[in-house]
Task: structure prediction
Amino acid sequence: MKRAFYQRPVVEVARELIGCVVSHDRCAGVIVETEAYHDSEPACHAFVGLTNRTRVLFGPPGHAYLYRSYGIHACLNAVSEPEGVGAAVLIRALEPVEGIELMCERRGLERVEDLCSGPGKLTQALGIELEHNGCDLGRGPVVFARAPRAWRDVPVAVSKRIGITKAPDLPWRFCAVDSRCLSRPALSRA
DNA sequence: CATGGGATTGACT
DNA sequence: GTCAATCCCATGC
Result:
């Protein structure tokens, strides 16, 4: 997808990414859950301003921002808004569509619904790591592509973001309501 | 240089 | 429902 797609308000990008496809190393999945983060609110890593860590968040849109969560998991984001604004969309869940056998191997599981139903799970399933921080999502190795026809106009639900303590009430989480691969139910009661 | 806090997950009661 | 694993980074002394 082109840079213009990401160079928009981050909440809009988060909504539009539902149905798009993420690919890496022979595996791919359709995005079914996202959350928006913006430097104007304290839950966003970019809230602290420009540091070594947040450099990619403030950089040009359409790039990957990777961070380590709880010392264990890598989480994947798509940098959005114009350069100079620190904003990104957290990819929280995918429906596996390609390389399922390899995903099972990496995750040590068999149930397809459990392979990518969480931000730390999907990076493990696709083999995405911190070294992909800053990668151009149009060129790879991590690639985002437009939604397949069957995934356009699927019903999407909005709710509060999950697992955060700061700014917990912003309705910036988006889910494909009919998916069985969400990290939590679409209508989260926070 | 020491410290504390996570945008999580899986195992266990 | 509870809880620990584990590490990167921003902050403060």
Summary: The mean pLDDT of chain A is 96. Residues 35, 37, 43-45, 67, 69-73, 75, 77, 90, 92, 118-121, 161-165, 183 of chain A lie near DNA strand B (CB under 10 Å from a C1'). DSSP finds five helices and eight strands in chain A.
